Amino acid sequence: MAGLKSLAKDTAIYGLSSIVGRFLNYLLVPLYTAVIPSATGGYGVVSNVYAYTALILVLLTFGMETGFFRFANKQGEVAGKVYANSLIFVGGLSLLFVMFGMIFLHPISALLEYPDHMDYVAMMILVVALDSFQCIPFAYLRFKKRPVKFAAIKLLNIIGNISLNLFFLLLCPWLYKTAPHLVSWFYHPDYLVGYIFVSNLIMSAVQMFFFIPELKEVKYRVDRALMKQMVSYSFPIMIFGLVGILNQTVDKMIYPFLFESRQEGLVQLGIYSAASKVAMIMAMFTQAFRYAYEPFVFGKNKDADNRKMYAMAMKFFFIFSLLAFLAVMFYMDILQYWVASDYREGLSVVAIVMGAEILKGIYFNLSFWYKLIDETRWGAYFSLIGCAVILLLNILLVPKYGYVASAWASVAGYGVITAFSYLMGQKKYPVAYPLRSMTLYLTLAAVLYVIALQVEIEQVALRLLFRSVLLLLFVGYILKNDLPLKYIPLINRFIK
């Protein structure tokens, strides 16, 4: 239990930067949807560009985050040496990417169909290069068990980005109308979407200064033998990472190309992306869990009870994922106001997107069997299969059914690779997951969700009250079966 308590503590701290940070970023969703009308497709442009940058970020980090943890925890390896070689490799790759991107900026912009906005592409080239390099110092902070600094940097970056967005999208337009001489020398009212990228670039550059201590404390010497081993280990992780991020972003990348009118595709993509943000609470929880779980798993690999711990971690992840799903769906009457009214038609996909996120989290938990036995190629195989399913379903169904098909394609893709990973994992690295208990939780959550949908209550307050009771029933079941109050430290003080 001590291991699980440590995991829960680190998850809570990392969750501060992930959950609270993304919640603060939620504030940008109503801002973007309020100042960028859905009919312009501007928010679709933002979603499309960020989809490409997410893909490139995985390419440039090259799986070195996981590689760093593996070799830093490996017997006989010096963590500082592993860290230095990770920085050199990712930093060199990022620098080459910037040089290549700037030299071929015009053809790249034309290929992405942004020939009139090469500045968008240039800014995001710089952002993704900075962010990829910074992934290694962030991993180092996790390895050194410094979640507080990790969370502080993440939160400062997010708060700064939000502040800049508010400045460019709200304050500057107001000043431009009331006192134009104050901002007219740098502000252009037609450059609305561009300021979103400007804000991101500024904060990515500023964030580098927080890593000066971590960048100064190592000796930058290339260990060729170690580098070769790390690259060999990390390359398959990068491959399935690339395909894995495609599973999340391929719909947003190809969406504008699936419609006869590119503008219509951007409009629909904007609505889909804005509505999907409501479901991102699941991604927040998964990310916070991942930050704590990765170093936890590689550290526990030396312990005798490691497989039991992995099984219990999976169970609790699944339980609280279902709790998050019910909370979001039961309070949709409130959460719908996070997006402007002309975007709310897309809220029908929230439940589907959350289902895909749960499957993605389960797949992440399952993925450690091939990482621990150094057979990372299996992750590449699974990711390729999932990507093929998602891509094929998007191409076949999106032109006819729109963004609902994109959401279901993600469920199908993650469902297939989750099943494959579980079946193969039980052969290669068997873990006795508590499937019966997890099935009971899934059944209870499904029954409560159906009841909430079927019981029609006109008055919003009464409807929310009724759904709150249903949510408390689920919480009560958790407390009765798996998390008794006496094991919760703060409550335990009062019931002793």
Mean pLDDT: 83
Binned, the helix content reads over 70%
Compressed to H and E, one letter per element, the order equals HHHHHHHHHHHHHHHHHHHHHH
Number of strands: 0
Uncertain residue ranges? 487-496
Broad shape = globular
Approximate strand percentage: under 5%
Structural class: mainly alpha
Helix count? Answer: 22
The radius of gyration computed from the alpha-carbon positions, rounded to a whole number of angstroms, is 23 Å
Biggest sheet details: none
Q: In whole angstroms, how far apart are the ends?
A: 20 Å
Quick synopsis:
This protein is mostly helical.
Keywords:
single chain, 496 residues, mainly alpha, disordered C terminus
In words, what does this structure look like?
By secondary structure, the protein is an all-alpha fold. 79% of the residues lie in helices and 0% in strands. The chain contains 22 helices and no strands. α3 packs antiparallel against α11 and α4 (64-72) packs antiparallel against α11 (224-254).
Topology of this protein?
Layout: H1 2-26, H2 28-35, H3 42-61, H4 64-72, H5 79-103, H6 105-111, H7 118-143, H8 147-178, H9 192-207, H10 212-216, H11 224-254, H12 262-277, H13 281-300, H14 306-330, H15 332-335, H16 350-366, H17 368-372, H18 377-401, H19 403-428, H20 435-454, H21 460-481, H22 489-495
Helix pairs in contact: 1-8, 1-13, 2-8, 3-7, 3-11, 3-12, 4-5, 4-7, 4-11, 5-7, 7-9, 8-9, 11-18, 13-14, 13-16, 14-16, 14-20, 14-21, 16-19, 18-19, 20-21
